[in-house]
Each structure stands twice: as structure tokens, then as C-alpha cells.
Fold this sequence. Notes:
This protein is an alpha+beta fold and 306 residues long. It folds into three domains: 17-84 and 132-163, Ribosomal Protein S5, domain 2; 94-123, no CATH class; 166-303, Up-down Bundle (Four Helix Bundle (Hemerythrin (Met), subunit A)). It has helices spanning 56-67, 92-108, 117-122, 141-207, 217-231, 234-251, 258-278, 282-302; strands at residues 17-25, 28-37, 42-48, 70-80. Belongs to the YicC/YloC family.
Amino acid sequence: MAFFLNPHLIMILSMTGFGKASTIIGMYKVTATVRSLNSKQLDLSTRIASRYRERELELRTRIGKKLIRGKADFTLFIEPINANNELAPFSKAAATEYVDLIRQLCQELDMAEPDNLLQIALSIPKVYKEKEEEEDSDVGEAEWSEILSLTDRALNEFSKFREQEGQMLQQVFTNAIGRINQMVDKIETIEPLRIESVRRQIEERLSQLPSDIVYDKGRLEQELIYYIEKLDVSEERNRLRNHLNYFVDTMNLEPGQGKKLGFIAQEIGREINTLGSKSNEVRMQQLVVEMKDELEQIREQVLNTL
């Protein structure tokens, strides 16, 4: 059975993303950066230049609507520039002092030092030798509008990254689901031969019984039918196929189905395990192991699906 997805639509988005944008506002270069990793809920941390910190809540709300889920970091920092749009000179001594202070604070709070320690120190306006007084000036609506536009640009780049990662996830899921379905087809061809082999083995063993042993052939036939029915996996195969189709149908829905895909993967796993418990034939057991391997790949990637 083939599964079809519309190649022009992005149904799957990754929770991993990165976006960055910069602009010049007055005598400052302002940079917005957003990055995220997988998480069950939205966990957003922000580092915003003190000039814009009073309106942090507005930014958090704007960013949260776009991210939905994931462990995310958002930074908005400013760097003074001169009339030629070059970064303003900074005080090496002041930068070193701030780096030491941040390290000391991390030790006191028993926290790991951030990887971008120097970048954080250089984002502190007091490090720079000129234009310090502009840091304390009021933020007008025109400037704030530029900040919001800058944030949106970073979020758009972030979304593009998520879409690219989502395309790869979508291909992984489609391929794995397709391979599992092929294995189900193989089990369907093996099953009648397996049942007949079981019946033949039982009959051969009965024929080897001593002639003086008497048994009810009608009752034996009933027990044989009951035993073979217990080995039958047609219901499990049908349910497994339904789950596989449901998984693909869910991928075709709007983005944000990661949790649902995880639940469906659990149901797929249950049916595969039931198939394994009923498999008393080597080829079927091998196929069950291969299906579990494919399902494990799906489970790993579902954790990173929005």
C-alpha cells in the first residue's frame, strides 16, 4: 500500500528551530535571535536589553503564539554604532569586569556558565564608551514598531528553519510507515502457510500415538480449531494497518500534531507486540523485530515534532 502526501504543503514542523535578524535604529544595531529545542510544553526564556525590558510581556506573548511548544530562548540586544554604522569602541576593562561578575554570579547560584558569556557582556550598554546616555531615553512608538518588525523577521526565519527540518521528519515518517506496511503484507502471505504447517505438525504427532490410545476425533478437531484461532493474527494485521493509515492521515493535517502522532505510535507498538507474541514462525518473528526497529525511529523523531 502506498502513502501519498502533498509535496507542496508542509504538514510537519520540527520543534528545533533558529532565526536571527538585525536592524539599525538610530545609533544602535539591534539584533533579535530565537532558537528552540524539543519540549512537551512551551518553555520560553528571554534576555532583553534593558532599554526594552518594560515591554517584555508583549514580546513574550508575540513569540509564544508562534512557537506553540518547545524549550526556546529569545534574545534582543543592542550595540552602539558610530556615524559610519560601525560598532562603537568599547571598554576592555568594563567588558572584563562584567564577564567576571557574570561568572561569579553563576558560581553563587550554582549554575553553568552560558556559552555566549562574552556576547552577553558586550550587550551591556555601559561597556561602550559613547552614546551611553541614549540607553536611558524613552522608547517611542515608531522605535517600538521597528522592534516588533525585527522580532517578526527573526520569527519568520525561525519558521523557515522549522519547515526545513519538518520536511526531513515527514520523509522519515513516510518511509518508516511504508516499510512497516510492506512487512505486514509479507506476514499476510506467510500466515496461511504457517497455520497449515501447525495443523500438519499436530496431525503427524497424533499419527505417532500408540494404536491402543483412543480419543474423540470430533473433540480433537474442535480443540485444533480453537488453537489455530488463537494463533490467527488477521485482526492484529487489520488494526495495525488502520493505525498506519491514521498516522499518515494525521500528518496531512495542519501543523501541531506531534502529540497525536506520539499516541498513534503507541497504538502501532501495541499491535506489533501482539503480533510478536503470536508469532511462532521464524520469518514472522524476524519481520516483527524489523517492524519494531522502524517504529523506534518514528518514536525518536516524534519527540521533535511540533
